Amino acid sequence: MALVDLRDMIQHAYKNSYAVGAFDLVSLDFLEAVIGAAERSRAPVILSVAEPHFSYYDLELMMPAVEAAAKRATVPVAIQLDHGSSLESAVNAIRHGCNGLMLDASQKNLPDNISATKTVVDMAHLCGVPVVGSVGHVAESANGNESLLTLPSEAKAFVERTGVDFLSVSIGTTQGQVKGKAKLDIKRLKQLHQELNVPLVIHGGTGLNEDQSRRMTSLGVAKINYFTGLSEVAAKAMQQQMKKSANASFIDLKKDVKHAIGEDVERCLRLWGSAGRAAEVMAQCALWLPVKHLVMYNVSGDREHDTEVMMAEGKRVLANIPGVREVFAGEVVEETESRYRYCWLIKFASQTVVNSYQANENKLAFKESFFQRLVGASFSIDFKEVSPRADSGFEIAYGRRYLGSQGESFSDAS
């Protein structure tokens, strides 16, 4: 179906008492297996890239594959950064294609957690991207300290002061291996659900049974993150191949990995109630479509060197604005065939970025220092990608034309 708005996806799950699975990816085997399982189950799904795993792969290389898989999927898909550690990593994740963020500052004291999370929320909301915050700490073993569990009073203060869209809570699940049934504090979860008016998120989905899953989703849990179980079944599949042949090649070792991961993902989607929901979720979700901002312009007089300096500085400054995914600075190929000699083509993560980009202080400083001083006639317009739902034609989401002299044309034309 398509890449969709994560906020819409989670809100549907919250209102209908089921949970969407967010599965951490560490390779193309995981990516293909998760998408395949979601399509077979007709379930919405979240493709998750976790910052603690970035030492195992290059995010810049991984994300084009993740985004391509999401866009060509036959079920609604969203992409999130999991366990982000800072504002910088959040901005970088949006730049590379994530349309959801999870900031994990839960190891900090509550005031510092609130401060760090609010900074990310303020930035992300200017880009139209929802944020998961975290209060409490999910242990890495079943013997976790009860003092790490989420306190309802702290959670309420955190949500009110940060403006997070969803809250990750600790109620007894673990992020490591679990033998037998997970031990959950359902009374605590009920309190959190009553105190808060946001969808809840669980990290550590390993060891949950059907009854526990049903009780959690009835008490506001709308998203469950899952990785350890997938890692275990992938490792087991490779170990089985090794037993068959001690001289097995790398390709041989990977033979059953995708199948094993896919089976476990399908189990989770059934267990958490999202299987069979794809069509109704798609009907309720806005598509996540990038916007391209086009500026065509001429330079006053013969100032070629100044223009080259401006374009280099512009690529540096504009590319670092939150929500800007790509900046192309170009010169016309056949000057005689065009009214304008130069252009900027800037890709925004979403339509929401249009306004925040225009108001960004670094962009305004660049405009004053370079563009207004050098540019004569100019033209500016914003396009969004053609919606997969549209039958035909090209949709202009938001467009304004600026033609005329330097003083008339550039008030908003960059």
Tell me what the structure shows.
Helices cover 43% and strands 19% of the residues. It is an alpha/beta fold and 414 residues long. The chain has an eight-stranded parallel barrel, surrounded by ten helices. Strands 11-12-10-13 form a four-stranded antiparallel sheet. Helix 3 links the parallel strand 3 and strand 4. Helix 2 runs parallel beside helix 3 and helix 5 packs parallel to helix 6. The longest helix is centred in the N-terminal third of the chain and has 17 residues, at 110-126. It is globular and about 75 Å long. The two termini are 34 Å apart. The model is unreliable at 390-412 (pLDDT under 50).
CATH fold type of the largest domain: TIM Barrel
Indicate the CATH architecture of the largest domain.
Alpha-Beta Barrel
Distance between the termini: 34 Å
Strand order of the largest sheet: 2-3-4-5-6-7-8-9
Structural class: alpha/beta
Q: How much helix is in the residues?
A: 40-55%
Q: Taking Cα atoms only, what radius of gyration do you get, to the nearest Å?
A: 24 Å
The description of the largest β-sheet is: 8 strands, parallel, barrel
Average pLDDT value?
Answer: 89
Strand content: 15-25%
Query: What is the string of helix and strand elements?
Result: EHEHEHEHEHEHEHEHEHHHHEHEEHHEH
Shape descriptor reads globular
CATH superfamily of the largest domain: Aldolase class I
List the uncertain runs. 390-412
CATH class of the largest domain: Alpha Beta
Number of domains: 2
**Total number of strands:** 13
